[in-house]
UniProtKB/TrEMBL annotation, chains A, B:
Domain Acyl-CoA thioesterase-like N-terminal HotDog: 31-117
Full protein name: Thioesterase family protein
Domain (Acyl-CoA thioesterase-like C-terminal) ranges: 154-275
Annotated region (Disordered), positions in chain: 124-146
Lineage: Bacteria, Bacillati, Actinomycetota, Actinomycetes, Kitasatosporales
Species of origin: Streptomyces chengmaiensis
SUPFAM superfamilies, A to Z: Thioesterase/thiol ester dehydrase-isomerase
Length: 279, 279
């Protein structure tokens, strides 16, 4: 791990930067550094759209972000068009779409997002959480792509940007012995040591290997829809991410993610509908 | 219960009817029959938007519907404007907004929805579900608004349209002794005996008393965002709905709903972010 960088000055911040072209319209560059095989990671894309909406809307923080994935994004230029749907006193709602050019120069929509924003620092302090942090071994007993014993298949550019250490109990797939349970748990951080913030939580919920691997299914698990609720500004330090699939049926599966911060708070919850691998 | 009516010819179908005004634009009438206190039920509104999208899109069935609630709807006229975002071979994505007129005659947006549609009858048969149907007593041992021993507070017009029988284990709130657990379970049907279909599942996920009641909190729990995944066409007969809240914090709570059909299949999953009652 490199010397820690600060929020605002990191790989993640540079690669999710957006440049105002005209009111509500932002230019972006999808980095090849956040690809899995050839596809751009869906959580990275969500963070990019989330940053644009944070600039466009009167409130700074994503509270609820719902994304429907339309076509596969490619590394390279993109434009994000935002719309303010409603501006309230404590919350505002916006819409954003990410477009890229196809071979003929026409605009193709990649993702469309509806999002409600607010101010996480102004929420009341009451906490009545029955959820428990995931039972995950200490970080030094978990394994990342570089730890062996066998290299984790499917490694891609994004693995260099992330600091993921998987719970050995959910690592059977990498050794040819998937558990058969739809569970994946890991310690999560950014490789350059940048601390988490609400935008990086949008990445964290979609950055682990798919639960389908532990169900013995290999191959692509394209996201159809992903909704993230940001419940609390995360404390500095590593996150723990727990992903669960309870229902694989009809060619689809859901992935529910819980993200816990170093202060033992449930900082994000997400659910996605994805297409099950054929394998 | 009245003599059973058929899908397409029921209170629910009449009250969620939409009339094509021009391509993509539908007139509707929000029925006062689906109100809780004075507010129009959010699941009923979602079913209305879902019906309009089912007519506008090339695929018939909602697979994933994400709604952001903007302003409180009122019984009376409404217009739904839809847009086809993407048309694929097996799935299509659309957007819809419901508008009403304010006192000055201006259009006010009530809800905006992004939705991915497909064809539930063309999904493969594979089922690998680890989720278990909710542990709920037989219907005759559960209680509805008319069963006493105490009348259930908060009863409203919608209770006449629904056939809800709550698990006694989640009914403590009605007797002044909430369990403190964020759980609500019930048998769910439509009062006129109409069988479930994908549209009525959009209603079912948001029709039970809020889990906040069992957490000892009374009052309004307005939905900020609600996403529903329809996983299977439901079999005829009563549904079982289980709602869980694990994280009440910062003035918000999530409600996760599972809906099971009479064939013991998990037919719908939803999650919503709602504002916690102040009580």
């Amino acid at each position: 791990m490199a010397e820690a960088v600060t929020i605002g000055d990191s790989e993640f911040d540079r690669d999710t930067a957006v440049a105002l072209r005209e009111p509500g319209v932002y230019d972006a560059e999808l980095s090849a550094g956040w690809t899995i095989i050839r596809a751009v990671n869906g959580g990275y894309l969500l963070a990019l759209l989330g940053r644009a909406l944070g600039e466009a809307l009167p409130h700074p923080d994503p509270l609820a972000v719902s994304a429907h994935y339309l076509t596969a994004s490619q590394p390279g230029p993109a434009v994000i068009r935002t719309q303010t749907v409603r501006s309230g006193r404590t919350m505002s709602t916006g819409q954003a779409s990410l477009f890229q050019r196809d071979e003929d120069g026409g605009e193709v929509e990649r993702i469309r997002v509806l999002a409600t924003y607010g101010d996480l620092d102004r929420l009341p302090d009451d906490v009545r959480t029955s959820a428990k942090p995931p039972a995950i071994p200490p970080r030094e007993h978990c394994f990342g792509p570089s730890d062996g014993p066998a290299p984790i298949p499917g490694s891609s550019a994004i693995t260099d940007r992330l600091d993921i250490k998987l719970d050995p109990a959910t690592l059977g797939w990498a050794l040819g012995a998937p558990s058969g349970k739809g569970e994946m748990r890991a310690w999560f951080g950014l490789a350059d040591g940048r601390d988490p913030d609400p935008l990086s939580l949008l990445l964290a919920v979609d950055a682990l290997p798919p639960t389908a691997f532990e169900l013995g299914l290999e191959g692509w698990t394209p996201t159809v829809e992903l909704t993230v609720h940001i419940r609390c500004r995360p404390a500095p330090g590593p996150l723990r991410v727990s992903i669960t699939t309870r229902n694989l049926a009809g060619g689809f599966l859901e992935e529910d993610a819980d993200v816990w911060d170093s202060a033992d708070r449930l900082v994000a919850q997400s659910r996605q509908l994805a297409m099950a691998p054929r394998g």
